[in-house]
Amino acid sequence: MHRFEIRDEFYLDNEPFQILSGSIHYFRVHPDDWYHSLYNLKALGFNTVETYIPWNAHEPKKGQFNFEGILDIEHFIQLATELGLYIIVRPSPYICAEWEWGGLPAWLLNENMRVRSADPVYLGHLKDYYKVLLPKLAKHQLDNGGNILMFQVENEYGSYGEEKAYLRAVSQLMREEGLTAPFFTSDGPWKATLRAGSLIEDDVLVTGNFGSRAQKNFQMMQDFFDEHGKKWPLMCMEFWDGWFNRWGEDVIRRDPDELAQSVMDVLKQGSINLYMFHGGTNFGFMNGCSARNQTDLPQVTSYDYDAILDEAGNPTRKFYALQSLLKEAYPNGTYAEPLIKPAKAYGSIVLKDKTSLFNNLENVSDCVSGFYPKNMEELGQSTGYIYYKTEIQRDVTDKPEKFRIIDARDRVQLYADQVLKATQYQHDIGTEIFFDIDKESIELSVLVENMGRVNYGSKLTAPTQKKGLGRGLMVDLHYIGNWEICPLPLDNVEGLDFSQEWADNQPAFYRFELEVDEPSDTYLDMTGFGKGVVFVNNVNIGRYWDRGPIVTLYLPKGYLKKGVNEIVVFETEGCYREYLELSDRPKQKALEKEG
């Protein structure tokens, strides 16, 4: 049984210990590939793996917990332990991580409380969650024969608030549920965030997050330590070796040799956790969103991050550049050749069936009625789409009728008798829409997409994090009522009836079949489609959008089976192809430059 201590340095079994850690989010990597990623971390020459734990994935509905499959955190920890890796766990209620609402479960939006605060209602929900989660982690601590070194109390809280009572309450909840390993906080390395987000007065280790200028950033941290009389080791808990990507923006890249040297600059002064070592994929609807003043920018499905391993978990140039420098600096380290998984280009598969969403609502939704529209959260829905339908009478005969959608989020499509009249997104929503009504009454409907809740910054608790039609739809100067409301979480598409009619330029489902002898990683090329999500054997593997920059969806071999596999595309823009191409590599779109 090992002993880990934080004094002037990190000590393991009373010997100085430098933490060489890399981030792997188990919830972004298919479980069949966990060993592959962890092995490659060990092969690089590192000794520790770090992971967040997303509350919203483990408790998607209040009181309903999931720790199976891709959420089996204990299995991930056990694999790391068997490979001889130590573990840093960040079970803080908020994780950021470019993840839907920073890991907070959307059902909290229904509660009358303030998140990330000492609000007793919020802390009560956190306590209920921790009672289930933390005993699973406690058994894997060093003093229980496991390999967990440390736990995070809160994540970059100094970039959000400064309520020490809240931080102490979270810390206390963690102790009450059996966590005995050292705690830490992580924040930006400058004084304002360290002062606001740390518990340095309570001897909780302070770590910093940055991606360059190690000497300057560590010096700011050291000054903060000196000010409080702490003789602690320096650690960068998130050294950003790449960056995430957003729809419609160029893929961000960092030079491998520059990155490798920057990592070594950190290691000259302290310990490190590479964020990310393996980024993985935002499967399903779990991408986060960057907050902006006017138009927020949702992140793409791929969380490749230009990391040390690519999205599939294979080594990039950064792996080899960094390993080469590590061998020079640490000649007695343990190194190995990385594992490499092949991907397969399965070629083209032909469209089998297609059917309209409007003719399948009863097969994919439990619709309800109400005079006023309800948002997703009121109906117990967290992610996906929601559809609203009503009937209106014609009031104007000599000119187009005026419509306004008020407070809808995030993207809306307005239909009259199932014919698309307008698409609006954030900065457009609320502007006037005009069209003629040529009969006494029409069916008016609105499809709303939650494109991902903000995961960082001041908008985290804004009303914009509630998704749906908002205050409603105005015709002329009044709100209209008598809505049929159909939640579309699309968590199960097996009930689709492809014998139902398909219509041009409507949201629709497209079914393909892929027959494989031996499953292999592959990439779905969504060129020719507009916007939507893809399901493989009823698993949502993520969103696509022709805005780019990435036009493929990574499909891990673990989601395929021998024999016939069903691929269903949900497309909202009326664009589709008669075939689907499966490639052996990701594909990017050349984005047009302004000016």
Q: What keyword list fits this structure?
A:
alpha+beta; TIM Barrel; Jelly Rolls; 3 domains; eight-stranded parallel β-barrel; 10 helices; 31 strands; 29% strand
Question: How much of the sequence is in beta strands?
Answer: 25-35%
User: Which runs of at least 5 residues are low in confidence (pLDDT < 50)?
Assistant: none
- Could you state the CATH homologous superfamily of the largest domain? Glycosidases
Overall geometry comes to globular
Question: How does this structure look, described?
Answer:
It is a single chain. The protein contains 10 helices and 31 strands. The protein is of the alpha+beta class and 595 residues long. The protein has 3 domains: 4-329, Alpha-Beta Barrel (TIM Barrel), CATH 3.20.20.80; 347-355 and 496-583, Jelly Rolls (Sandwich); 361-488, Sandwich (Jelly Rolls), CATH 2.60.120.260. The strands form 6 sheets. An 8-stranded parallel beta barrel has the order 4-5-6-7-8-9-10-11, surrounded by 6 helices. It has an 8-stranded antiparallel sheet with strand order 28-27-30-25-14-31-26-29, with no helix packed on it. α4 (120-138) runs parallel beside α5 and α8 packs parallel to α9. It is globular, with a radius of gyration of 25 Å. Keywords: Glycosidase, Hydrolase. Belongs to the glycosyl hydrolase 35 family. This is Beta-galactosidase family protein. Residues 373-488 form the Beta-galactosidase 1-like first all-beta domain.
